[in-house]
Amino acid sequence: MSLIDVESVPRRTMTLFFMADTSGSMAGNKIGALNDAITNILPMISEISNTNPDAEIKIAALQFSSGTSWLYDEPKNAEDFVWQEQKASGLTSLGEACCELEKVMHRNGFMKSASGSYAPAIILLSDGGATDNFDQGIEKLKTNNWFKAAIKIAIAIGDDADKDELKKFTGNLEAVIEVHNIEALKQIIRIVAVTSSQIGSKSTSATDTTKQDQVVEEIKQQIENVDGANTAADPAPAADDYWD
Amino acid sequence: MDLKKGQTVHLTTGGMTCTVIEELGRGGQGTVYKVDLAGKKMALKWYHIPPDDKFYKNLQKNVDAGAPSDAFIWPEFLTVKENGSYGYVMKLRPSGYYEFGQYLLARHQMKSVSAILAAAMKICNGFKLLHRFGYSYQDLNDGNFFIRPEDGDVLICDNDNVFPQGEKSGIMGKARYMAPEIVAGGIPDKFSDRFSLTVILFMLIYLNHPLEGAKVAACPCMTEGNEKKFYGSEALFIYDKDDHSNLPVRGVHTNVIRRWPAFPQLLRDTFADQLSQQKLKNPQSRLIEQEWEKIIAKVRDSLVFCPKCRQETFVDSSSNTAKCMECGASFDITRRLALADRSIVLTPGTNVFIDMDNIVDMKIQTATNGEMMLQNVSNNSWSVETPSGKIRVVNVNDFLPARPGLKISFGSSIEGAPNAKAEVK
Fold first, then answer.
1. Which B-chain residues 259-288 have CB contacts (< 8 A) with chain A?
2. Cβ distance of A203 and B217 shorter than 8 Å
3. pLDDT band with cut points at 50, 70 and 90 for residue A241
4. What is the model's pTM?
5. In 3D, which of B212, B211, B203 has the Cα closest to residue B100?
6. Does domain B98-293 have CATH number 3.30.565.10?
7. Would the CB atoms of B224 and A119 count as touching at under 8 Å?
8. Per-residue pLDDT for B207 more than 60?
9. B8-90 maps to which CATH number?
10. Three-state DSSP class for A15?
11. What ipTM, to 2 d.p.?
């Protein structure tokens, strides 16, 4: 064994969760854009993970419609993660999805890692409102310590998304990003996923704000350049007919 | 707003412009483009969101002042504010250099221990000059360095947060590299730079983080609260002399477990002192870069080539014989060059560095009769006084025998050590 032989430093794992609404209302362009966007960001996430000495990024994905299912039964490296094209049909079991997420966010579940973990990042995408018992699901999820520490961002697709529910999920309205067209949806998925993946390995300008706030702040800056996207905390546009 | 191929960007210097050739990379703060500036290929960093006016003025000042040393990829030109933002022009990073993180991930490997020590020396030298110019770097982390594996040459990047000592750039630094007092909410300065420098040197040499041992590994989730604890209020060096609760873990912190005993005692003592509770809590008592340079020079003085297997090995200079760390062969290390408080071990094939510039000043070779010879590979002649008082001149590339009692006056031959004197012992 030579003096100069070394092995990689141990890295903590940061799991990036996608919770994707695949209910019937997502049919058409929306589900197409979702499939396309996630497939395209996987190589970017892989690159971020491979060049990052602080954290190894793994991906887990849950789809929810009339029921829920995990795409894989453990988080996977981005290069090993093959996104299975989702089809839209059925209802919106967001409450059940919260329960499913709670179930896996334990050390004997998805959060096992030899070198430990960073708090996960969770991206929730939905275009409607829960058709099951959302409140019961979210209340249970909120007791989970991994969830409490997680970066939580919701993407509200179109005007029918239930922003109150999404707000309950993320903890504040600022972290709910509204998208109003297909191109914006694709861009926002990329911006949110990349920003969340990079946050632990970047220099910060403040030590008194949370990572969630930092991610939201960066996303806000970037969505200024995206037509048809804004945070739900922004004022709604004035109705022309009222002020006419 | 992104720039386009062929777009002209105006500089603040005498009506000059540069033209965008292609995008090179995209970071959190900005995008880097390859540009043509009066026929020369340069790099332009263009901010996504333009930082405030204070930042802009500071960049202009740094452009005007010039780089502290050739290690810095320094802002050379500033653009005017246009297209909704601004940027600065710097040299392109030459090929053959890899980001520090690539070494941490073992995707690249330093080619020799002397290259590792040369990199450590060059990093210390860069920050010594930066601080001497009155700046603080403020955001020292593993992303700032590019290193050439063959010789350990270093390039220091991301110099846009360099501000006068005591002034706030607005950036706090990166988790795991920030000094405990910054984690607790302080303002980065040259003293916190020195903590980050110690972490970088430790990681360069031992390839593990100095505060990440058993205690940190046992933490399942590194939340923000835990980060504040492990890198701030409860920061504990893995080899703390009094508290053994954060020792490296076998199978996890493999590199440091292997290298810690293999590298010299002087390094162990220095890191243990610099990362002691006392120094962690007293930023102003941290070692200045010049002292670090001296320590690295002494460490290098005890790195020799084994006469048998020709591999690098450290020797204990308090002893007269050494055992090769690679092949186990024993060999004699009685012959030394005494220079100030240094005792440089002389063995055939070893290179001697008199000053801190990483340029070999003396080579040790063997004459046909087996006698060890010292070759002058510096810039000028040396004058050597024999035990009987005769003066001999050793010109560049000439030799003197490594005989005890010979006194060497280096004169002007070594830039970083004018009029240095040494004696063969």
1. 259, 262
2. no
3. low
4. 0.93
5. B203
6. no
7. yes
8. yes
9. 3.30.200.20
10. strand
11. 0.88
